[in-house]
Design goal:
The protein is mainly beta. Helix content is 9%, strand content 43%. The protein has three domains: 30-164, Immunoglobulin-like (Sandwich); 169-246 and 397-425, Immunoglobulin-like; 251-392, no CATH class. The protein has helices at 3-26, 97-100, 203-206, 311-314, 389-392; strands at residues 34-35, 40-47, 56-58, 65-71, 79-86, 101-103, 107-108, 111-114, 123-129, 134-136, 140-148, 151-164, 169-176, 186-194, 207-213, 216-222, 228-230, 233-236, 243-245, 251-254, 265-271, 274-279, 300-302, 317-325, 333-338, 353-355, 360-368, 370-380, 401-408, 417-425. The strands form seven sheets. Strands 1, 3, 5, 7, 11 and 12 form a six-stranded mixed β-sheet that branches. Strands 13, 14, 17, 18 and 19 form a five-stranded antiparallel β-sheet that branches. A hairpin with a 2-residue loop joins strand 21 (265-271) and strand 22 (274-279). The longest helix has 24 residues, at 3-26. It is globular. The protein starts with a helix and ends in a 7-residue tail after the last strand. 33% of the residues are buried.
């Protein structure tokens, strides 16, 4: 192959690659936390050493993220994974994997173990990234995609994570909304971005901001423009655009043991071959006063108080029964169990059914032993945002975590770089 032919082949390859990416864009596909097989349970992605942490690492650091999930099967499957770089809106970036990854694009999920002494048989899979086979070279949003039999179309699960290069500094605070039309129900997030290390030609557009409450994407505030621009400082001090309902503290239950009832557990029964846990009946909270208590902002932790040595393989699965009594069925939408236990998604897998005889919404989820937070949400038909206010109530003094992401793309840039990140807590009135 002569030099001119080789050059043409390279150009043709780039054009075909860009065209394939463009076709994906037109399909309006974006990567979100998803589980595609009913038998896949207890999906977690976190910083090594902290099961409740946000899956975000610094570019070039030796900190790893840990992915864990269970397959309710007795045989080991041929699972593989890949990492996809995404833009600030979680669509695939217009860059090649060979540019943003060191190592191989597809790799096996080779760390697995069989369950031991459990009523429900499963295989526990684990993966740590970055690793010697696959390491991100660029900052930004990434989708960790697990698939079966070396076929990327045979999806198993998708989990989002973040790689940050700290080029900007973010400071902020959470306070009661300045103009709260409902007299004390909303929280306002004001913040500043200090960008001494970045020369912004167009400060209003060069930085994209995503503001999230308790890691929820469905109600995230995106593309806020700075309200004030000063030398090396962007200020985001609004009175309406950066406001969230305070919501309520998450409900919780403890199923770390099968020997006795944990917190908010009504009864535990064994109907061969499975354990069934019935939670205490919940109550509508939108008409109740605020009550503070410590919780995990919607997360869960896999644990056991029984005599086990390995939580991953010896914690059992049980059927958990939820019940929410209401005066009547809510028209025009669905009621769902919601939180990290459902992947922060409200869909048919966690949708509750109305029981006319008992006048309550009911749902049953198969969950691994542990400690769980959750809420009830209402999702109007066709809506993309889950609403917890009508069922859970809302208060400005509710303890919430807020995540602020700052993305940067210069005039010549082909992808969104994640250049800043901070977590704020509504109970702390200064920046972290």
């Amino acid at each position: 192959m002569n030099r001119k032919t080789a050059y043409f082949v390279v150009i043709l390859d780039i054009i075909l690659t860009l065209n394939s990416w463009a076709s994906k864009k037109t399909d309006d596909f974006y990567y979100q936390n998803s589980v595609y097989k009913e038998e896949i349970k207890s999906v977690q992605l976190f910083r090594d050493g902290n099961e409740l942490s946000n899956p975000i690492i610094e570019l070039g650091s030796d900190v790893q993220l840990v992915l864990k999930f269970d397959d309710l099967a007795e045989d080991v499957k041929n699972y593989s994974y890949t990492l996809i770089h995404c833009d600030a809106s979680w669509s695939e970036s217009y860059i090649r994997q060979s540019e943003y990854l060191t190592g191989f694009p597809d790799n096996p999920v080779a760390d697995y173990a069989m369950s031991f002494n459990t009523t429900v048989k499963f295989v526990n899979y684990q993966l740590r990234i970055p690793n010697e086979d696959c390491t991100p070279k660029f900052s930004g949003n990434y989708a960790l995609v697990v698939f079966e039999d070396n076929n990327r179309e045979n999806l198993i699960l998708i989990q989002r994570f973040y790689v940050v290069e700290p080029l900007v500094r973010i400071e902020g605070l959470v306070k009661k909304a300045t103009f709260d039309s409902f007299n004390g129900e909303n929280q306002e997030v004001d913040f500043k971005i200090y960008h001494e290390k970045l020369r912004l030609l167009n400060p209003r557009d060069d930085i994209k901001v995503v503001l999230m409450q308790n890691r929820r994407w469905d109600n995230a505030i995106r593309d806020l423009k700075p309200s004030f621009i000063r030398e090396n400082v962007l200020e985001y001090d609004y009175e309406k655009a950066n406001v969230f309902p305070g919501g309520n503290e998450f409900r919780y239950f403890d199923i770390r043991t099968k020997r006795y009832n944990g917190e908010n557990v009504g009864e535990i029964k064994f109907f061969r071959p499975y354990y069934h846990v019935t939670l205490l009946p919940d109550a509508l909270r939108s008409n109740k006063k605020y009550f503070t208590y410590k919780e995990m902002n919607g997360n869960f932790s896999i644990e056991s108080q029984d005599r086990v040595t390995d939580f991953d393989t010896e914690c059992d699965y049980v059927f958990v029964h939820f019940a929410l009594p209401l005066p009547s069925e809510l028209p025009g939408g669905s009621v769902n169990v919601f939180g990290a236990l459902t992947g922060w998604n409200a869909n048919q897998t966690n949708q509750m059914k109305w029981n006319f005889e008992s006048a309550q919404y009911e749902a049953t989820l198969m969950l691994k032993q542990g400690y769980y937070n959750y809420q009830y949400v209402y999702v109007a038909d066709g809506a993309k945002k889950a609403d917890s206010v009508n069922l859970e109530g809302t208060h400005f003094n509710t303890e919430n975590e807020y995540q602020i992401f700052a993305y940067y793309r210069d005039q010549a840039g082909r992808y969104d770089r994640l250049v800043g990140f901070i977590t704020l807590n509504s109970s702390v009135k200064t920046s972290e």
